Amino acid sequence: MTDACENPWGALLDASSLPETTSGLILFFAAAMRSPADAAEAAALLAHRNFEERAGLQEACLAVPLFAGFPRAINVAAALHRAFPDLPAPPGDDATPEARASRGEELFRRIYADHSDRVLEALATYHPELPGMILEWAYGRVLSRPSLDGATRELMAVAALTVTGDERQLSSHVRGALRLGSNRKALDAALALTAPFTSATALASALTLVRDLTP
């Protein structure tokens, strides 16, 4: 592991046009998509920089299963707690299952807009349980938690999907980020933070996608 004092990823944070509370979350989440070791290195860097958005880092850990599975999420959460051993308990979520399902569908429809029903119908053709799982669990239980705003979560999703190479979903979440208030500058800045974790070709492709979808 690179010493946190010498980690070149710090230069990416310094150069980012995003607030460090946002850029740090994106860097950590993108690192988690490549490997637990990268997540550990990113967490150590953020700890060295006295990163303030610690609740956001815990939210990022909860979102890892949606993009990289539970084994990765467990290893990333362990890495985070090694870097920040004094993490406070994350805020609870007292919403009822019905309320979670409702807020999850609301967020889903904000992201997919007029395409929402068509996306849900397509998911149902792949497996009848998929729409419910995505609305109730992914969106209702995780992505709509009030601890982190939707616009930041969408920038994190764009970064994650660039690293994982899931281009179809990347296109959807670039659009979702725009619908939730992001712009080309913010998306370009989020993508720049993925540079250590993805290929130059994948990064260039994602930047082109953003350019094509923004004025």
Features:
215 residues; mainly alpha; AhpD-like
Task: Detail the topology: elements first, then pairings.
Layout (H helix, E strand, L loop, with lengths): L8 H7 L4 H15 L1 H13 L5 H15 L1 H14 L13 H16 L3 H11 L3 H14 L6 H15 L2 H13 L4 H9 L7 H14 L2
Helix pairs in contact: 2-3, 2-4, 2-9, 3-5, 4-5, 6-8, 9-10, 9-11, 10-12, 11-12
In short:
73% of the residues lie in helices and 0% in strands. It has 215 residues and is mainly α.
Structure report:
It is a single chain. The chain is mostly helical. It has helices at 9-15, 20-34, 36-48, 54-68, 70-83, 97-112, 116-126, 130-143, 150-164, 167-179, 184-192, 200-213. The chain has 2 domains: 4-91 and 147-213, AhpD-like; 97-138, no CATH class. It contains 12 helices and no strands. α9 packs antiparallel against α10 (167-179).
Count of distinct strands: 0
Estimate the helix proportion, in percent.
over 70%
How many DSSP helices? 12
Uncertain runs are: none
Largest sheet: none
Q: And the CATH topology of the largest domain?
A: AhpD-like
Shape field:
globular
